[in-house]
Write a structure and sequence with these properties.
175 residues; mainly alpha; Four Helix Bundle (Hemerythrin (Met), subunit A); two-stranded antiparallel sheet; 3% strand; globular; DinB family protein; DinB/YfiT-like; MST-like
Length: 175
């Protein structure tokens, strides 16, 4: 991880800061690219930077909606579709949407009385029946997922134009 999170005084701030640091890595990996570059798949993987940003935004929104007990977006009928950019969607649109999702997540988490608030998980083959998770668990899971995808994004970006996460961080700090 090319950024270090500042020291914070409480767990909630720390978890939100670590999540934002990982989001920043993912966004930086996609910065300055054309839509064509962002949609390309230069590695052995079928993932593109645009798809990773889209997936991270959709995944975070899904988890926060689960926490709120609202109608979360249903899982795709074909999981491979989650990793394809639909016709007409762009990286630029998804970067804006990701910022909106991040702001919504922060508001929801800050409004909770405690990170111990728990919520039921939907029925899915990967959850035990009647599973519940805390808001703390959800934040840790989001950090894990976004970090994984930020790592994928680093490899894809370096394959595209040779820029590393550190170079992109220095560029962002200079602007």
């Amino acid at each position: 991880m090319p950024t270090l999170v500042d020291a914070v005084s409480n767990e909630r701030d720390a978890l939100l800061a670590f999540l934002e640091a990982q989001r920043g890595g993912l966004r930086r990996a996609a910065s300055g690219l054309t839509e064509e570059q962002a949609a390309s798949t230069p590695s052995a993987s079928s993932l593109s930077l645009a798809v990773l940003v889209r997936h991270a935004a959709r995944g975070e929104q899904w988890w926060v909606e689960q926490l709120l007990g609202g109608p979360a977006a249903s899982a795709p009928a074909n999981w491979a579709d989650e990793y394809r950019m639909p016709e007409g969607e762009t990286l630029a649109q998804w970067l804006v949407r990701y910022e909106e999702v991040a702001a919504a997540t922060e508001k929801v988490i800050r409004d909770l009385p405690s990170l111990d608030v728990d919520f039921p998980l939907p029925e899915a083959p990967w959850f035990s029946p009647n599973s519940r998770r805390s808001a703390r668990w959800m934040l840790l899971h989001l950090i894990e997922e976004v970090a994984r995808h930020a790592g994928h994004a680093d490899v894809i970006r370096e394959s595209l134009d040779g820029k590393t996460a550190f170079e992109l961080l220095y560029q962002a700090q200079e602007s």
